[in-house]
């Protein structure tokens, strides 16, 4: 029999840090962009809201209206803090929607904006967010055409939440969606990964690094247009936001039933992100980005597309990181620096909550 000093600890009140897959209630992981988010969409929202435009479950839907092909997208933003190195919730709201449209090959034309304000928030803070949104829209070359404001009681929000929706024209001959990835496609990422998530975490948690990490939040429409000028036959474009590069690759592999092989040494991870992730126990592949894209490009066009990306300011550090293969369909594997391989899973929940 154990004495008090060696007795087993009381565990009945413990909670698991990772949300359980069969939870009957919404948990933070449902908003993390990983497997929990996907299950919520697949098993709850998609059946309830079923329609042909929604069926592809892409970042933006491509619909036909009056003979024109339009990309249409919406997103909501709840980042904390509202302002961080390199950006703000307003920059995320504009660029996030602009980039979702760009992932269908569309140049964004118009946005809507919805402000959800908490009672007691300083008017000066709201003005600062609105001004930042206007600046971001002008930088991205998009017009905010309509909007709405709601106020909730104190304690029922977090200062300012934003929602944006956007529309843009899809050029003729462009068909970009995850199911088009095929074995032989070259996988290209447009620049350094993991920057946004580390930037937000550094200020939210008061972490000090030797070099300040700034968010990569930026509009990608111009970069995508430069790529399309090389060839309209880009198979897949994704912006690896929540869940990071690993989740974006995993979603494409699953949608197209292809295998993806990534070379770890080829991943463009800046030293500050590497160091921060080492301290925090994070994998840069799972950390959010807000100004990067990953492209699946037919091999015959890969060199020219890569050159076009590197000639654009948003893709100066673009790099080939892997390829699509016939083996292990639906799975992403990474070749390590030691010559081995590891499976790159889609996370269940999230490493970093409230990063967008």
Overview of the structural elements:
A hairpin with a 5-residue loop joins strand 13 and strand 14. Helix content is 28%, strand content 23%. Helix 5 crosses helix 8. It contains 8 helices and 14 strands. With 356 residues, the chain is an alpha+beta fold. It folds into 2 domains: 60-169, PurM-like, N-terminal domain (60s Ribosomal Protein L30, Chain: A, 2-Layer Sandwich); 178-343, Phosphoribosyl-aminoimidazole Synthetase, Chain A, domain 2, CATH 3.90.650.10.
What's a quick, concise take on this entry?
It comes from Streptomyces oceani. The chain has 356 residues and is α+β, with helices and mostly antiparallel strands.
Distance between the termini: 52 Å
- What would the principal axes of the Cα set say about the shape? globular
- Count of DSSP strands: 14
CATH topology call of the largest domain: Phosphoribosyl-aminoimidazole Synthetase, Chain A, domain 2
For the largest sheet, list the strands in their spatial order: 9-11-8-12-10-13-14
- Into which percentage range does the β-strand content fall? 15-25%
Instruction: Please bin the fraction of helical residues.
Output: 25-40%
User: Structural class of the helix and strand makeup?
Assistant: alpha+beta
SSE pattern, N- to C-terminal: HEEEEHEHEEEHHEHEHEHEEE
Query: What is the architecture of the largest domain at the second tier of CATH?
Result: Alpha-Beta Complex
Domain count: 2
Global Rg:
21 Å
Parts with pLDDT < 50 across at least 5 consecutive residues: 1-20
Q: On the 0-100 scale, what is the average pLDDT?
A: 90
Major beta-sheet overview: 7 strands, mixed
The count of helical stretches stands at 8
CATH fourth-tier homologous superfamily of the largest domain:
PurM-like C-terminal domain
Could you name the CATH class of the largest domain? Alpha Beta
